[in-house]
Every structure is written in C-alpha cells, then in structure tokens.
Design goal:
The chain is built from three helices and 15 strands. The chain is mostly beta strands and 252 residues long. The chain has two domains: 35-129 and 243-251, Trypsin-like serine proteases (Thrombin, subunit H); 131-240, Thrombin, subunit H (Beta Barrel). It is globular and about 45 Å long.
C-alpha cells in the first residue's frame, strides 16, 4: 500500500480510508529539528492539499518518492519548506520540473525515487536546510534507531497539521523479505524499518518524506502493508543506492 495521502491515479483522487493515516504513535516536533523536511502540496489547495513529503537536497531540488508524483503534472505540485505546519508559513514554491528515476517500477515500487526542480531557490536559514544524504559506504546495522517524519492525514479528525516524527529501528533485510513473502517483493533498492511488534510506523500521507539515521537521510517513505503491523515493517527507498543518480541530476 502506498503511503501518500491520496491514490494518485490522474490528479488528486479520493483519499484512501483503509489504513490508519498518520505517523503512528509519534510525537509533534518542530521544523528546526528537521529543517530538510518539506511538504508536497496541491497548489490549488495549499491549506488542505498536502499529499506527500520530501527532503531538500539542493537550493532548488527536493527528493521525494516516485509514486508521489509519477502521474501528476508539475503544475499540480508545490512544496512548503521551513514551517512546522503544512498549511501555513515558511516558503511556498512551485515546481517546474520532475525527474523520476528511469527504472522506477510503479507496480513493485522498486527504485521509488523522484526529484523536483523548484521555480526559485530556497532561502536557507535555521528552518530550511539541505539534507545530509547517506553515502554509498554508509551502512546502518539492524537495530540502529532512525527517525521518520511527516504530516500525514488523520482518518477522522482531518489533517495532522503539525509535523510529527517517530523513532523506528532498521530491520534486517532478509527478515523483512521473508516476513513480506508474497505480500510484497523487497528489492536491493529498499530498506525496512520498524518493530517486530509493530505499533510505530510511517503511514498514509508520509510518502516521500525522510527516514533520518544519525543525521543523514537514509530512506524515503515508500510502501507498507497497512501501518505499524506486527512483523511487517515500513518499506523505504534506499537513498544510498540512488546517491550517484541524485547527484548527477542536481548537478546538471
């Protein structure tokens, strides 16, 4: 199940209502603690149209999940940076170009990476900063505690307007693959994080946002089987596997 706030089939379609739809069992946080985090919004509805998250990787580039934007026109996407609230404050900037990884698979969500080129440069400050990305040589052992952040949605009470975060440990890749079995193919371009007992996770509306480990963005919220389910960890696009592609795009 994708973790964007809408089923993106054409322009913003109906909300999914089959899963708990927010950072599960997390806490409210301040954007100063996650200044690389941005919200992806429908520019026609910037107050209520948040549907995914992303990470600032250069003054005019945002990294997000391919499935967040693959079917959308760039005119249907804007970002808000520098605010703890997705609906107000900070810097609201249009997107002029999207670059989806050429090997992205919209069935398996393999290589779930996309970059958004902004209409103008972000103004960097205490609330807006370029993310540190993991390198190809970075490796986080299973059990390493990381943090996933995002706004998401709530099923019954409307949007979770303020940024939330929850700590989740990196899961063993082979165990994750065995646990998912036929439910979802876990590829080498994915990493898993969460608890065996479940209970804490990213969820609907958090797609595209960062999984931050030791101050570096290691994953992009991608897919999962429900949210916070026992033995079914959250699945993230592995940033280390795409580092060279990311750099090649933002340096052009």
């Amino acid at each position: 199940m994708i973790r964007s706030a809408v089923l993106i089939i054409g322009a913003f379609a109906a909300l999914q209502t089959t899963v708990e739809s927010r950072i599960v069992n997390g806490k409210v946080v301040d954007i100063r603690d996650y200044p690389h985090q941005v919200a992806l919004l429908d520019p026609a509805d910037p107050e209520d149209g948040q549907f995914c998250g992303g990470s600032i990787v250069a003054e005019r580039w945002v990294l997000t999940a391919g499935h967040c934007v693959w079917s959308l026109l760039v005119s249907q996407v804007a970002i808000r940076a520098g605010s703890s609230y997705h609906a107000r404050g900070g810097q609201l900037i249009a997107v002029t170009r999207k670059v989806i990884h050429p090997n992205y698979n919209n069935v398996t969500f393999d290589r779930d990476y996309a970059l958004l080129n902004l209409a103008k440069s972000l103004t960097l400050n205490d609330n807006v900063a370029i993310a540190n990305l993991v390198g190809a040589d970075d490796f986080f052992q299973p059990g390493t505690v990381c943090t996933v952040s995002g706004w998401g949605m709530t099923l019954y009470n409307g949007p979770a307007h303020q940024l939330r975060a929850v700590d989740v440990p990196i899961a063993d890749h082979d165990r994750c693959r065995r646990n998912y079995d036929s439910k979802h193919v876990i590829t080498s371009f994915m990493l898993c994080a969460g608890y065996d007992a479940g209970g804490k996770d990213a969820c609907l509306g958090d797609s595209g946002g960062p999984l931050t480990c030791s101050g570096k963005v290691a994953g992009i919220v991608s897919v999962g089987w429900g949210c916070a389910a026992r033995d079914l960890y959250g699945i993230y696009a592995d940033v280390a596997q795409a580092r060279d592609w990311i750099q090649s795009q933002i340096n052009t």
